[in-house]
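Progress against Task 2.4 (sequence-to-structure conversion) is shown through the following example record, which the project officer requested during the mid-term review.
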Amino acid sequence: GRPPEDPDGSDRWIDSSFFEQPRKVLAEWFPDLRDVPLLETRACHYELSVSRNFIIDRHPALDNVWIAGGGSAEGFKFGPVVGEYVAE
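Structure tokens generated for the chain above:
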């Protein structure tokens, strides 16, 4: 993997070489799309803890504040369970 990235310092630029292999596969399966220009790219930050587990704990200085994160792309489906846990 890559080292952690500072979201405030990232330009979110994607190197064009990243798209070479996917474009080859796309051209193989969908020949009519071979020469279609790529109009837009987006780089989105992926929130994931080092252990790949959720981070759920009380804030060290504020007893009534909980921190819940680290779930990234699949974390949203656990939102209700995490919410119930911290509410109890």
